[in-house]
Amino acid sequence: MAKKVASFVAYDPFRADQMALSDTDAEILRFEQICRQNRMKVTYQRLEIFRQLTSTTEHPDAETIYNRVRKKIPSISLDTVYRTLRLFEAKGLIVRVGAIGDSARYDATVDSHHHFLCTRCGAIIDTRCKGLDRTSAEDLACDCGQVEAVYIELRGICNTCLAKARKHRQASGTARR
Ligand SMILES: [Zn+2]
Ligand SMILES: [Zn+2]
Hints:
The chain is α+β, with helices and mostly antiparallel strands. The strands form two sheets. It has a three-stranded mixed sheet, with no helix packed on it. A two-stranded antiparallel sheet has the order 1-2. Helix 3 (62-69) crosses helix 4. Helices cover 39% and strands 11% of the residues. The protein contains six helices and five strands. A hairpin with a 5-residue loop joins strand 3 and strand 4. It has helices at residues 23-37, 44-54, 62-69, 78-90, 130-133, 159-176; strands at 95-97, 105-107, 114-118, 124-127, 153-156. It has two domains: 16-94, Arc Repressor Mutant, subunit A, CATH 1.10.10; 111-176, Dna Ligase, domain 1 (2-Layer Sandwich). The structure holds zinc ion (2 copies). The site of one zinc ion (ZN) has 7 residues, from helix 6.
């Protein structure tokens, strides 16, 4: 078997400084800064994986990220995506969120927010519901220790699934008539 040559494309952080900053450039610079703070090497593969995560609110799993990144970097392996996600998670760049089923889902939004999990389609929706935010650490009498953050995971049926069920009911109702 031919030895696979690592195809890392080195990212040049100085290149972006010479141009007017587009959204993408600003994103690259932000990533570069995050990497530097976390003593991580900036590679094109890592940047693309991170970019996939920041460009969606879907909380994708590793395989979804892999399929999207592969369109830009065909040589990337699923294993690299898994390893990169674990690294990002360990460095606090992303968080792993609760999932129904067995594949971990990832979130690049690391500031305080809550999740609504649809038990029917598996969607994970960000929520910053004011009612939830008022639930301050002090309000939660906790005997376990000092509360530093509050994270709430709501489970239920999302609006899309509710609408689908309603349509289905209406359709079968008309059929029976
Ligand atoms: Zn749903
Ligand atoms: Zn989220």
